[in-house]
Amino acid sequence: MLLSRLEINNFRGIKSLSIDFDGLTILIGENNSGKSTVLDAIRIALSPGLGSRRGRQFTEYDFHLGDENACPQNCESILIKVYLSERNPGEWAEEIIQQLDEVVQTALETGLGSIILQIQGVFNEELGDIETTYDFLNLQGSALPRKNSSPLSIINRIVPLFFLSALRNANDEFSKKGQFWNSFLKTIQLPDDDRKKLEEELSRINNDIVSSNDGFIQVKEHIRKASKFVTLSSEESVVLEALPTRLFDMTGKVQVHLKSPLGATLPLYRHGEGTQSLAVLLLFQAFAAANLKEIYLPHSTPILALEEPEAHLHPSAIRAFGDFFKDLPGQTMVASHSGDLLSRVSIPAVRRLYKNGADTFVGKVMLAPAGMRTDAIPPGTTLLFPEDLQAIDYHIRLTRGAYLFSRCWLLVEGKTEFHLFPLIGELLGFSQDASSYSVLELSQAEQKGEPFIKLAKSLGIQWFVLGDGDSDGSDYVTRAQKYLEPTESPDSRTKQLSQLTVEHEFWHNGFEDFIKNLLSDSLKREAIRDAAGDNDKLVKNMIKRAITVSGEKPGFALQLFDEIKRRGVDSLPTSIKDMFDKVKALL
Asked: 2-160+296-342: what CATH class?
């Protein structure tokens, strides 16, 4: 049973949002974009305490407070809808259909079964408190007659939810109250005769340990005086236990110990935060493999909602989670800030939450149906083909996953721009990190970088293309303009330099002498001789040799930036400053 979609209205920072899920869904986005809110909405909707009279799922600060005058009394009610669906007709076992017959809805056009659960939170002025109600809906959105609460309890057993916050505490999770560990402790059972023999042996060991220290005898004698003030047993009223002597007490204190590289065996809580966090995640995996089917129904599909699995972990360990998620049963939702984690999951699994003003949106990749031709894509639709994903995997996901967290991509042709523009941005007070933009090079990208623009549009990442002044640059810009929205002007997202390359742009805007001075006299004479009186060729020769002697384009970009910094930002070509202004306007 798959949680296929979640709809949220007026919950915390989200006014309205609809998001769909796969078997594995990775939520990314800036802080306060709504990732944790989405996971909490799922937790509230699928909480076992939802139908309880004492349940208080919402607090005053769960209402969407849209302005400074908003308060729970005047806010619109919170609405959360979860859609549990079949992926293929007839996927749900007949047992599930029978048990949930009163709430299962089947779409005539697809034959797919679904269950729609709606949770509402409203401030009840008569009670002076928040009231939580729930309903099952039909496909038209109307509430179904409620006979009893059994469908809710059955769903809690068929779709058990396990929520792990970013602040995972190994001491809590590996205690008797831990949501996974406790199930293992409960399964420890011994026949009465074996239990009695074991407890007798434990008692003997305990007595040997205690009697080895005469000081303990003095402690017992002094504490025994408490019988003057409180009623105690007349026989052996004080007992010292160096270790538990009863089986149920001992099993409740089972701990995980790990060996360090030096061979010392240490309790889990004495290891690093990363090791503890990882152990909690692996505990869930063990729980799902060993106990899930026994505790819940045979057709259970667990959901693991997990915040920031990368917390405290080494990048290699984070990347290993790609395989970890594949081995988990059921469905997994992960909120992450890690490019290393994204490098090991498929791009279609990613959902990027982002804000536009006060509104929350979700971006995702839509794949073109098998066999579809590129010229058959409906207008206004962005679909990615297998060759697009291959280019994205090679240039972004596998090596530069952090780009997926940027607000805007500045797409440029070559290496000089790639190395130079971030430095110029810093000089202009437009830092890549603070402003959340990234510079991506297109010269090695397939289809002149079109897959990058498709991905940016799909995920809600802003984009801008700068092309050189030659025919290739014109091609980059023309291709990019195919992806403009009807309301967007070409110069809002694209710009073509007036000169042949960015190096030529600087040459013709006050940096000619700087570039010439990078060359020795012999190299200048050589460039003049090879140009044979052709001025355009002379400029090209000078620039080419200046790049070579500077350590190719990365070195040239660094030397050029040092000169720009020496002269000040007013020395920048107008075209470059104009480009940065347009990128700023997109953020």
From this structure: alpha beta
